Amino acid sequence: GEVPERKGQHYAVLVDDLDAAVDALRERGVRVSDPVEVATGLQSFTRDPCGNMVELHEAGGIARRAGATVN
């Protein structure tokens, strides 16, 4: 089939603690962007071995960083 045009498509993986996930990936030599705030959450990006963009997302991450309890 025909490969679709790149328009920022990516898949996302929900994580409990983005800071810890980023640290763990970097310890293993994976390139991953610094976490940024998006609404009430946090997100970082990396690429899989085939070059596809992968988002790492922590819902409510801003509150966790502030010490609040997140359900």
Task: Provide an overview of this structure.
It is a single chain. The chain has a four-stranded mixed beta sheet with strand order 1-4-3-2. The chain is built from two helices and four strands, in the order βαβββα. The chain has helices spanning 18-27, 61-65, and strands spanning 11-14, 36-38, 41-47, 53-58. Helix content is 21%, strand content 28%. It has 71 residues and is of the alpha+beta class.
Number of helices: 2
Q: Helicity range of the residues?
A: 10-25%
Structural class: alpha+beta
Using only CA atoms, what is the Rg? 14 Å
Largest sheet: 4 strands, mixed
Poorly predicted segments: none
Order of helices and strands: EHEEEH
Give the strand order of the largest sheet, numbering strands 1, 2, ... along the chain.
1-4-3-2
Number of strands: 4
- Distance between the terminal alpha carbons, to the nearest Å? 43 Å
Please state the overall shape, judged from the principal axes of the Cα atoms.
globular
Offer a quick outline of the entry.
By secondary structure, the chain is α+β, with helices and mostly antiparallel strands. The protein has helices at 18-27, 61-65, and strands spanning 11-14, 36-38, 41-47, 53-58. The protein starts with 10 loop residues before the first strand and ends in a 6-residue tail after the last helix.
